[in-house]
Design a protein that fits this description.
6 helices, homohexamer
Chain lengths: 120, 120, 120, 120, 120, 120
């Protein structure tokens, strides 16, 4: 059964491929720079993904939240740690963030369910 | 010689005191909740201050950036780590963040100069 | 026949319940503070819901608009008064608010239709 | 002694006059529409100014906050009512609003001092 | 076969008609002013639509992006020119704009497919 | 006599130099990409600077507005054309943009005065 996460991943992969075809040098370089920003540096990738999650949450972008949550779960952040990071975003961003908090918590649950499925 | 950081700290302390006098229960509780969000939890305070810095930077609030940089330097984040976090904020938030990046880098320099002064 | 408002109410109730289960003290306190902000104080709840509606509209959050419109209709604001408040939000926030104005006007119509149904 | 409010009023008056000289039909019409949005309608001007204050606060614009606070004090909103409205803005907009809350509270104090001076 | 663009156009037309029925003078005047802003002036309408596209993209409003892309394609902007404008929006607005870049590129493809269909 | 534009240019140059010294690869690449976004491409640099101005105005960043106005005047955009672009930004972004419109109009006047001085 396809979840909304599968739809997101399919659409994202398809349109990123389409954007790659467009072959605009500036856009391609920005995509590379975006990927590079989360690589090992003075900070480790795990910490950076959490920064990306909080930035996405206060800026209220569900797709960006989903993307960074996928990365955060891969990087082995635990649920309680993700909730604690989302709490910082909620306090900084206020109640206007709440719909995105609901979305984020649902995404975490979907990601945990996927992990369980893949193990069984 | 008073730096702009001293002015910020004075104004912030004076107006927070004034807001405390106003004695609005909701506002006081929010201030408490805001302080509590950065305390030890599933995440440690040091990590949370970095989250606060990145959230403040993508939301482009110089006063909030200064506040969290003070906390980040106190929490012993190194300059290179702060720059790496600011880079994540720059990529997420785009060139509109650049004036705040300039401000943040200047604040880091001012904070390091203060530390040096207090040791000499 | 379920409207999009029923879907919104179901999803909101379900995910708020899930967030309650998570049992993060900071998040729970913020939810309480959010509820308390619209209770009787120096201003009455009816006025505060209108403030919440305008804040949600200029910040362009459809879920928040729907939530406050439900409360505003319950608080007996008339359609013409809601339109006048939305006009303030439109002037403050500009044409980028228009898609959310469309959404808000549709939600008002759906809420009035619900009231009619429940009376017949 | 000129306060920062006098500076704001002078600059605002001078630049609005300059914008009027520019004589761009669209800009002039927008300014008229902006003024008209706060006039008597389904809602009274007093209520609308409070809506303008909250919208300005969640959108974090100090000049807009000052402008609407001047109007709100003229419309006889009491301090406690203004604080209660600012609390709604704080909850909706989060801690990123705090520097603007400090500014707003200071402006209210300056406006009250002006009133006292003009009576003595 | 109805695309999401047809759904958008239908909903937009229907709700704009509904908003017209509401007959709020301020809202109607704002809609007129909004239309007028893109008419021939010191700048030509073609340039102004591109400005509207970039403004909509950095403010991250998919409906506004779609509306201005329809106008931009009608105004005979070529795909490469639209991509170059979207690149400016991406650099100014950062990676948080990427989901809207995907949406915009898909809309351009849908608009080109419509043009092809109408010619065949 | 040093204008606020000179102060802005000095501070910007000094802090950009400082950021260059920091030598963070991601930040340096972003700065290069930012510069490149306004170079000749499918669109000419003159058009792109106007896009940058409107993006900066709706995102309400005075420093970014000043930077792009300097570039726009260098690119020979006339005052009436700049006002017409600012009108688009005002309509898209609403009255919250007005303080930045005042700032922009003042900057245009300062830039014209500089040009006159340098010719005399």
């Amino acid at each position: 059964m396809a979840s909304r996460l599968d739809d997101f991943r399919d659409y994202r992969a398809r349109m990123n491929e389409r954007i790659f075809q467009i072959d605009h040098l500036g856009i391609k370089r920005f995509f590379n720079l975006d990927t590079a920003a989360y690589r090992e540096g003075a900070l480790d990738p795990k910490t950076k993904e959490l920064l990306g999650l909080v930035a996405s949450t206060v800026l209220r972008c569900d797709d960006c939240i989903d993307y960074h949550l996928v990365q955060c779960v891969d990087a082995e952040w635990k649920d309680e740690e993700l909730y604690d990071a989302l709490n910082v975003a909620l306090i900084v961003g206020g109640s206007i963030v709440i719909p995105h908090l609901r979305h984020a918590v649902e995404t975490i649950d979907l990601l945990r369910a996927e992990r369980k499925d893949s193990k069984s």
